[in-house]
What we know:
Blueprint: H1 21-34, H2 45-52
Amino acid sequence: MIGHQQPFETVDSKMEEKPSSKQLKRMLLIALRCVDPDIQHRPTMAQILLMLQPHDILLTD
């Protein structure tokens, strides 16, 4: 799937709303960091939560 450049095959087909390609890429990169063979390079849960936060923050009054 990933190795064949078909990342959308990793998304559950039952999901009503599909992620954008940008969102999917970010989720897959985070997932790959979580399974790094070197345990010292894996992120903590706190780091994962920060990585999952949206980067496009809208400022409202």
